[in-house]
Amino acid sequence: xxxxxxxxxxxxxxxxxxxxxxxxxxxxxxxxxxxxxxxxxxxxxxxxxxxxxxxxxxxxxxxx
Length: 64
What we know:
It contains four helices and no strands. The chain is an all-alpha fold.
């Protein structure tokens, strides 16, 4: 079972940027590519890496 997005240990700027984009679950993140996420103001490479690692562990992946 995927952890809730709000429990993932990413920085608050990244959390706020994802929420502002309407992304509330890890499943929704699968609809975005690394570049899409990095284009959100506040989401950096470290947050994308952490999110991607969680998805990979669960057999999921980012778009593209």
